[in-house]
């Protein structure tokens, strides 16, 4: 007879590892395990809970809608964008763990001297504090994306632009928070990808998705087909391949318009997300440093793949803080197939 474990949800969660326990248990596996990297993750955990509270109240209090200003991208700043940006920045500064912060919402990076003005903290954090924020007032999931590097300029000196302009292969941690039907923190420190779900009743993240892995193949493609006429020929050819009646095709098109949500679903179900260059966006739309690099790190750690259609995202040498790049990311075989179409169209 099967043993019926009639635990309730809370009791079940009690048996799952909390994020705090996971960090302590894996401390030794963190690169340069001095505990500072753990403190960055803990800082993001706190800020995520604060932003989650506001995001989930957005419909009830006057925090939905544009803040009346524009960010460097020329996008209307939503009030929640501003709140999320300030929350993550302040939490990181208060924890005395970073020497610099770059954000989609800030034109330039922020130098963090530390309480003793020593510039002795060794990490920089780059982030998109609330990606997909145009979805906020229509109640669609949004997310925070973050990327962590060890500084490369001398300790004890103010952080420099080259500390931020590092190729993605140098990341020591990356992840996202998805504020959806449930709020999750998903991150990697280079030892696989793990997902933690927030129990809002007690404000604790529990390990709900250990060792997340992309399927090598999938049947979902995520792209804004409204831009079809502007796409490169290789993308058009790949889309026609996806839509052809053959084998496991036609695939299913699923596009939320929120990178974190589309990425999260594709990592669980198998799929590919594409935001290519186009005649409307000659360099692409997504930003290399705080959207594509962290998602590429996660994808590769989960057995997936991320490129600009031709070369590995994480090997691109950045030249500007807010530079844009074409982005193909997801199940390894799907990204490889899309790259074949891109390559053939170039011949
Ligand atoms: P479009 C949100 O602004 C974002 O950066 C991603 O989260 C999302 O996938 C994409 O842009 C949506 O862009 O042009 O399809 O509306």
Automatic annotation (TrEMBL):
Positions contributing to Mg(2+) 2 binding: 128, 131, 291
Record pathway: Carbohydrate biosynthesis; Calvin cycle
PROSITE patterns: FBPASE
GO-annotated cellular components: cytosol
Obligatory cofactor(s): Mg(2+)
Domain Fructose-1-6-bisphosphatase class 1 C-terminal, chain residue ranges per copy: 215-342
Comment on bound cofactor: Binds 2 magnesium ions per subunit.
Keyword annotations from UniProtKB, A to Z: Carbohydrate metabolism, Cytoplasm, Hydrolase, Magnesium, Metal-binding
Domain Fructose-1-6-bisphosphatase class I N-terminal, chain residue ranges per copy: 18-210
Record-listed Mg(2+) 1 binding positions: 104, 128, 130
GO BP terms in the entry: fructose 1,6-bisphosphate metabolic process; fructose 6-phosphate metabolic process; fructose metabolic process; gluconeogenesis; sucrose biosynthetic process
A Pfam match: FBPase
EC numbers on record: 3.1.3.11
Primary location group: cytoplasm
Keyword Magnesium in annotation: yes
Location within or outside the cell: Cytoplasm
Gene3D superfamilies found in the cross-reference section: 3.40.190.80, Fructose-1,6-Bisphosphatase, subunit A, domain 1
Entry superkingdom: Bacteria
Alphabetized InterPro entries for the sequence: FBPase_C_dom (IPR044015), FBPase_class-1 (IPR000146), FBPase_N (IPR033391), FBPtase (IPR028343), Fructose_bisphosphatase_AS (IPR020548)
GO MF terms, alphabetically ordered: fructose 1,6-bisphosphate 1-phosphatase activity; magnesium ion binding
Reactions catalysed: beta-D-fructose 1,6-bisphosphate + H2O = beta-D-fructose 6-phosphate + phosphate
Binding site for substrate: 131-134, 224, 255, 285
Family: Belongs to the FBPase class 1 family.
Complex formation: Homotetramer.
Protein name: Fructose-1,6-bisphosphatase class 1
Organism expressing this protein natively: Flavobacterium haoranii
Lineage, broadest ranks: Bacteria, Pseudomonadati, Bacteroidota, Flavobacteriia, Flavobacteriales
